[in-house]
Write a structure and sequence with these properties.
This protein is an alpha/beta fold. It has helices at about 5-10, 55-70, 75-90, 95-105, 110-130, 170-180, 195-210, 225-230, 245-255, 280-290, 310-325, 345-360, 395, 415-420, 435-445; strands at about 20, 20-25, 30, 35-40, 45-50, 135-140, 145-155, 155-160, 185, 215-220, 240, 260-265, 270-275, 300-310, 365, 385-390, 405-410, 425, 430-435, 455, 470, 470-475, 480, 490-500. Strand 16, helix 13 and strand 17 form a beta-alpha-beta unit. Helix 4 crosses helix 5. The structure holds 2-aminohexanedioic acid. The site of 2-aminohexanedioic acid (UN1) has 11 residues, from loops.
Length: about 525
């Protein structure tokens, strides 16, 4: 990794050999077990982090609830100014942070930079938003009354994010929550703890320089036990969680027990429908990037290609030919397309999927397998694989977080394709490749895709931050990032003011004394 400047990147980001994994801002501490972070790129130890204990967590919660009381009084545009300064630092540190993301998570350096770019973009968005936290005004049915709504900060927001987007998903939540006036407690993935510490250091420095109270950006580190401290704590009105559907169900039920709010962004089972009118070249780029980008470890990764029978062989041949061009190897080396999976458990899940699809009657048309030998010492590099399958297979119904693509065939029209596409429990991202206006509009219509994201002539992954991001069904229903997703980080208050000397009741009720 040294030839790619990792040591310098860690230095630029202020990372030490042993890092405290708990922070309330300026203050970094930690008394829990040590978590070691090994790079899936070369298997080397990147650093160690101390996890968060119950006592550490208590300190965080005290700091966050106290800090919130001051932060909420600061005018939103001034909070936006702090986020703007935070963003200046992100711009300055884009390269080292992108490099660390690539090295600790295993995605390509280009994608690591892309992720930091998402942080920069959402911060820009949040700064503008800080002057646009608008509510509506309504006409009261009573004379001499004024009615309107306003949005107030919610309080302490808990953010639980996953290894696959170790920095962007935090920023989608935190940049909005900060301008909304909330304090944030973030649990990054225990698989990418160094990246979390690096982000927290940037926020801590900028916040301290700008007089932001301690507790507005907090970090906790650890496994599900730390997550449970958050989900069961009624001082946290909102938990925003990104990860598997299995994790989301646990989070949802814990938070629901105390009637807290959740924002869930869970598993996907994203498909591209390839119609008789599809542009093959665009389809291949979209499908291959969607299936093998980030080694298939995006929520939005393309899992299924639903191809019209008249196009089937042509598309299959083109995709298979494209897979032959893929270079698998060190993601910091820009010549490679596909990096490693996050760890050996992920490799196991990938292998399991390939075994299952064959057992269920599928046919492997691009062989998978774990790579060995020079450059692949971490044991996490696998070959992107393709199988011909049926939508009814149990394994096809499941999200496998790796580069496994299923080819499914449809005959008939776009409605038949949609039956297959919507015939899974997840509902995150979807796409159709067509130049036929009727098909495209049908796909986007009320009878069309049931997903939170539906694209025409674009793949399933790589959404821009400006739209609301999330999905339906077992994807969890939450929306993060752009559009009006900010509303979930605030509480809405309806205000009615009577400026007369009478007290008329609503609905015309008479109550004379
Ligand atoms: C995720 O995988 O959790 O749309 C987020 C995309 C990225 C974000 C993915 N902008 O693929």
């Amino acid at each position: 990794a040294e030839e790619f400047g990792i040591k310098q990147a860690l230095k630029d980001l202020g990372i030490k050999d042993i890092n405290e994994g708990t922070s309330t801002g300026k203050d970094f501490f930690g008394s829990g077990d040590i978590i070691e972070s090994y790079s899936p790129v070369d298997g080397a130890l990147i650093g160690k982090v101390k996890s968060t204990t119950k006592e550490d967590f208590e300190k965080v919660m005290t700091s966050a609830t106290e800090g919130f009381k001051t932060w909420r009084k600061m005018p939103a545009p001034l909070r936006g100014e702090v986020v703007r300064k935070f963003n200046d630092e992100l711009r300055r540190l884009k390269e080292p942070l992108g490099k660390l993301v690539s090295y600790e998570m295993g995605k390509s350096y280009q994608e690591g930079l892309g992720e930091v770019q998402e942080m920069i973009d959402i911060c820009d968005f949040a700064v503008g938003l800080s002057r646009q936290l608008h509510g509506l005004t309504m006409h009261s049915e009573r004379p001499g009354h004024r009615m309107y709504e306003q949005y107030h900060p919610l309080g302490v927001v808990g953010i639980i994010s996953a290894f696959n987007f170790p920095v962007a998903v935090w920023s989608w939540n935190t940049a909005l929550a900060w301008v909304c006036g909330d304090a944030c407690v973030w649990k990054g993935s225990e698989k990418t703890p160094i990246t979390s510490v690096a982000c927290q250091k940037i926020a801590a420095r900028v916040f301290a320089e700008n007089g932001v109270p301690e507790g507005i950006s907090c970090l906790v580190t650890g496994d599900y036990k730390v997550g449970e401290m958050m989900t069961t704590d009624s001082r946290i009105p909102l938990i925003s969680a990104t990860g598997s559907t299995k994790m989301g169900k646990i989070v949802a039920s814990k938070v629901a027990e105390r009637l807290g709010k959740t924002l869930l962004e869970l598993g996907g089972n994203n498909a591209i429908i390839v119609t008789p009118d599809a542009d093959i070249k665009m389809t291949v780029i979209g499908a291959v990037f969607g299936a093998v980008g980030t080694a298939g470890q995006r929520c939005t990764s393309t899992r299924r290609l639903i191809i019209h029978e008249s196009m089937y062989d042509k598309v299959k041949d083109a995709v298979v030919a494209a897979y032959k061009q893929l270079r698998i190897g060190n993601p910091l080396d820009e010549n490679n397309h596909v990096g490693p999976l996050i760890d050996k458990d992920a490799v196991k899940n990938y292998k399991h999927a390939l075994e299952e699809v064959v057992k269920e009657g599928g046919k492997i048309i691009v062989e998978g397998g774990v790579l060995e030998g020079k450059g692949y010492e971490s044991g996490c590099y696998v070959k992107p694989a393709i199988a011909e399958a049926d939508n009814s297979f149990n394994i096809v119904q499941h999200e496998t977080f790796g580069p496994v693509l299923y080819l499914l065939k449809y005959s008939g029209n776009v409605e038949d394709a949609l039956e297959i596409q919507n015939g899974v429990r997840q509902g995150l991202s979807s796409a159709i490749m067509t130049n036929n206006l009727r098909e495209a509009e049908h796909f986007l219509s009320v009878q069309g895709s049931d997903c939170g994201i539906s694209n025409v002539n674009i793949g399933t992954s790589g959404a821009e931050i400006g739209g609301a991001f999330g999905g339906e069904k077992e994807t969890g229903g939450g929306r993060e990032s752009g559009s009006d997703a900010w509303k979930v980080y605030m509480r809405r208050q309806t205000n009615t003011i009577n400026y007369t000397t009478e007290l008329p009741l609503a609905q015309g009720i008479k109550f004379d004394l």
